[in-house]
Structures are given as structure tokens and as C-alpha cells.
Write a structure and sequence with these properties.
By secondary structure, this protein is α/β, with parallel strands linked by helices. The protein has helices at residues 23-32, 52-69, 80-88, 107-110, 127-136, 142-159; strands spanning 44-49, 73-78, 94-95, 178-179, 195-196. Helix 5 runs antiparallel to helix 6 (142-159). The N and C termini lie far apart (55 Å).
């Protein structure tokens, strides 16, 4: 799989286990399962919603999995409402998905995978993970919470119900006379706090 990191963005949580590119191990596991170099394995379909971003990512996966693993990967896209229904009903082999944190805490990402959670469209369930998700809600010490988050990330890295690919990043150009605009994790900028300062004409 492509080189990546933890499930929750590093800026939200403490360093945890890293997902990394391990094509050699993947080829070994395929052979042990009876599919050397992907031979005999049924085609894998990747579902994505109709969007350029999803298409680009899925095409990259298709090319890498075919080149390095010999897997026949087929792509298909659906309009948003149909895609949501397909993922909610688990009607897919692999599905591309994305998430943007709506508050500054790792739980905005990690609670997506609790059993029967409203955003858990994987069908994955792990009692130990669920217990940690409940435990962390009772903790107030930041270090203790980060330790639990790291354990949750470890479970995800071991069972891999999802494959983290990348984290969104923002690039911006701000004129020096714009004031009250500050970079932040959620990249939200209430305009009532932004103003223009007079430009020094020198």
C-alpha cells in the first residue's frame, strides 16, 4: 500500500504506529493464500463517489496494486446518494472515503470506527477498541488521553479495517495587510475577526 501514517492526522494526536509500503510482504501473503503474483485472484473493485479527487486516488491505487501485486483492480464510481447507500449497506469490495475533522481532538477521527457507529461503514467491530473509545471520554489528563489514542491506533494498524492514504493539507497566500487571520487545525477563519490594516506607502 502507499506510504502513509496513522489514521488520525499527526497534528491531532501523538505519534502512533505507521502504515507503510510493504509490497514484498504483500506478495508473500498473496502466495501463501494461493494467489502467487495475484494469479487466480478475482478482480477487486474500488468504489468511489463521482469526483476528480476520488478518481485520481483510485487510479493511483489501481496502477500500484497491478504493477506490484499483479492484482486486477477495477474502478467504478457512483453519484453521491447512490454511493452513500452502497457504503452504508456494505455493497462494495473496497471503497474510497474521506473525512475532515469537525473539532480539534483525535476522537473526531477515531470514533468513526466504533461498533455500529453512524460513520462506521466498514462492518468492522472490535470490543477492545470500543472499550478504549469509552475510556478516553472519561479522561481529562492530555497525556493519558494520548496514550489511549496511541493504543487505539495500534489496534487499527494490526487489524486494518481501513487503509490510511494521506492527510489533507492547506496552502494559502495571505497579503500582509490582512489581520486577524490565523492558521489553525480546522482551517476555519471567521470573517468577523478578520480585517484589513492600512498599507504603509513608505
Amino acid at each position: 500500500m502507499p506510504r502513509s501514517g496513522c489514521f488520525a492526522p499527526p497534528s491531532f494526536t501523538s505519534p502512533g504506529p505507521q502504515f507503510s509500503t510493504q509490497f514484498a510482504e504483500a506478495r508473500t501473503l498473496l502466495a501463501e493464500a494461493g494467489y502467487p503474483e495475484g494469479k487466480g485472484l478475482a478482480p477487486i473493485e474500488i468504489l468511489y463517489p463521482s469526483s476528480d479527487n476520488g478518481r485520481i486516488i483510485c487510479e493511483a491505487l489501481q496502477e500500484m496494486w497491478h504493477k506490484h501485486l499483479g492484482i486486477d483492480v477495477r474502478l467504478y464510481n457512483q453519484e453521491w446518494k447512490v454511493y452513500l447507500n452502497s457504503t452504508e449497506t456494505k455493497n462494495y469490495d473496497v471503497a474510497w472515503a474521506a473525512w475532515i475533522g469537525d473539532y480539534v481532538d483525535p476522537m473526531t477521527f477515531l470514533d468513526m470506527l466504533v461498533t455500529n457507529g453512524g460513520n462506521n461503514r466498514t462492518g468492522w467491530s472490535n470490543a477492545a477498541y470500543d472499550a478504549m473509545a469509552t475510556e478516553v471520554q472519561t479522561l481529562r489528563d492530555p497525556a493519558a488521553r494520548m496514550a489511549v489514542f496511541a493504543r487505539m491506533e495500534t489496534v487499527l494498524s494490526e487489524e486494518a479495517p481501513v487503509i490510511p492514504l494521506y492527510h489533507y493539507a492547506s496552502v494559502y497566500l495571505r497579503r500582509p495587510e490582512v489581520r486577524g487571520w490565523h492558521a489553525n487545525l480546522l482551517d476555519t477563519h471567521p470573517l468577523q475577526h478578520v480585517w484589513l490594516a492600512p498599507v504603509d506607502q513608505g
